[in-house]
Write a structure and sequence with these properties.
By secondary structure, this protein is α+β, with helices and mostly antiparallel strands. The protein has three domains: 30 residues, no CATH class; 170 residues, Chloramphenicol Acetyltransferase, CATH 3.30.559; 240 residues, Chloramphenicol Acetyltransferase, CATH 3.30.559.30. A hairpin with a 2-residue loop joins strand 4 and strand 5. Helix 4 packs across helix 11, helix 5 crosses helix 6 and helix 9 crosses helix 13. The longest helix has 23 residues. The radius of gyration is 23 Å and the shape is globular. The relative contact order is 0.16.
Length: 497
């Protein structure tokens, strides 16, 4: 039986305050740091009580945007050096899956509502060559796949997660758990302990808890968010490639979705950190401004007829707080959209100032939640498919910044790399999804003091050479407009802490 609209509305309206009180009653401590235990918690009982579990708004969004041609998946490539004990490697992977319930779920529809249900846990597939294109049918199979290939000097791992299951932060959390479990299999003395996880907290993912004061300010926030939503629907952004699926352009049955990584050297990464300290602009704002200008330069050179149209950057925003430190792998993210008319700002510096101003307002007003509210309203009205129409652009590109990953891990060696039983994680690349007219996207992460861009693109629409030139232009924008060379030689600012 379908829930009454008024009941559902009341539940969502007061859900934040109810959530906070409920968590206090169940003994969850807010504001605590991540604790460690001996890793012997019985997770099977918790799993049985968790499912079925209804999808939250962001999970609905990713499921609705999924298609065979453009799957909403996050491929992750791990390069490891050293000898691997296959038996211990697989058993530690199984333990990590047991600790993260969403590693073994699929979706089931019941009377028009979608639920997570327990599914077969994923297994490592040892292959001779890693796949290029992996699709996950979330309604019929587990939302995670893993492939491994032995190399001459180590092993390559290719993980694929459906974005309805988890975000990049959850993936990084899962991989670290896997590596800790692997190290524990070989420890003779005092073993490193596993991070404490509370699977019951998954029931509260997607519920935006807020204090009474924040609740009273919500009308102001929602008004500002409504202005942004109106701007979102008022125009269509330019695409980095064909603007229409006609005129001789068509996608193959399996589009050429390709990936590559573009790295800053360790010294360039240090310079960027110094630059951020000198200019007082967050690194994310510097990168966004440089990316805006790089895309605009490419459009002026390759598609001058479209170069005066709006550019829109799709930027994932992590909603995790300290209170979610014990939350297992899942989605705890929203989206923000930054629109820029080319004529508004002529230089990279002026673009950066506008980006900083807009991002500051978003953070202060907590407008990162607006996208979640918009998805919720569109779902109630049955208009979500309108937002996700395949025949028009929703954003020019996507730029996600995961920041420094594993900077505080207990597994770091002298080179600031994850090391477990002689197996060293040399690199880790997250590749965000693409879709029609969102022909390219990039994810920034910093590992072992080196920043890298993991780029996904549809080669039927934009070639690798063009994507590489945009990334080179991004770096050059930082060098030329913010004098990164000068920041590099500065002794008053350090590198990544």
């Amino acid at each position: 039986m379908k829930r009454p609209v008024c009941s559902a509305f009341a539940r969502r309206l007061f859900g934040g305050i109810v959530k906070e009180n409920a968590l206090k009653q169940t003994g969850t401590t807010f504001g605590q740091e991540t604790k460690l235990n001996n890793g012997n918690n019985d997770h099977s009982a918790s799993r049985k009580s968790l499912f079925p579990m209804e999808l939250v708004d962001f999970e609905h969004y990713m499921l609705a945007d999924d298609s065979p041609e453009f799957p909403m998946t996050i491929p992750v490539k791990l390069e490891m050096s050293g000898e691997v004990d296959r038996v211990a490697f697989e058993s530690s992977f199984n333990l990590a899956c047991a600790r993260h319930p969403f590693s073994s779920v699929r979706v089931e529809e019941r009377e028009g509502r979608f639920f997570w249900i327990a599914s077969e846990p994923p297994k490592i597939s040892w292959v001779d060559s890693l796949p290029d294109f992996v699709e996950i049918d979330l309604r019929n199979e587990t939302g995670m796949k893993v492939f491994a290939k032995r190399e001459d000097l180590g092993v390559s791992i290719f993980l694929v997660f459906h974005h309805s299951v988890t975000d990049g932060g959850g993936i990084a959390q899962f991989v670290e758990d896997w590596m800790i479990a692997y190290k524990r299999t070989g420890d003779v003395g005092e073993a490193i302990s596993m991070p404490l996880l509370k699977p019951d907290q998954l029931k509260n993912r997607g519920k935006l808890g807020m204090s009474l004061w924040q609740y009273l300010l919500r009308p102001v926030q929602e008004f500002c968010g409504a202005v942004g939503v109106a701007e979102y629907f008022s125009h269509r952004p330019v695409a980095m490639g064909p603007q229409r699926l006609d005129s001789g352009f068509s996608l193959g049955k399996k589009p050429g979705n390709r990936r590559f990584t573009f790295r800053f050297s360790a010294s360039e990464t240090k310079s960027l950190v110094s630059l951020s300290k000198q200019t007082k602009y967050p690194i994310n704002d510097l990168l966004l401004a440089a990316y805006y200008s790089a895309c605009q330069t490419w459009l002026e050179k390759n598609r001058p007829e479209d170069s005066d149209r709006h550019l829109r950057m799709m930027v994932p925003m992590n909603l995790r707080k300290e209170t979610e430190a014990t939350l297992p792998m899942c989605n705890f993210v929203s989206m923000i959209f930054l629109d820029r008319k080319p004529g508004r700002s002529k230089t990279v510096r002026s673009v950066c100032w506008y980006v900083w101003l807009e991002m500051s307002a978003i953070k202060i007003m907590r407008l990162g939640y607006t996208f979640i509210h918009m998805i919720r309203v569109l779902r109630w009205l049955g208009w979500l498919p309108t937002l996700l129409r395949r025949d028009r652009s929703i954003a020019t590109s996507l730029l996600s910044n995961m920041g420094r990953i594993y900077a505080d891990s207990k597994l770091l060696n002298s080179e600031s790399k994850i090391e477990s039983r002689g197996l060293t994680l040399e690199s880790m690349a997250f590749f965000p999804p693409v879709r029609e007219f969102l022909w390219m996207s990039a994810l920034v992460s910093t590992y072992a003091g080196q920043m890298q861009f993991s780029c996904s693109f549809c080669e039927d629409a934009i070639c690798r050479k063009d994507v590489e030139s945009i990334m080179e232009s991004l770096k050059q924008n930082l060098l030329d407009n913010f004098d990164m060379k000068k920041a590099k030689s500065s002794k008053s600012n350090g590198g990544p802490e």
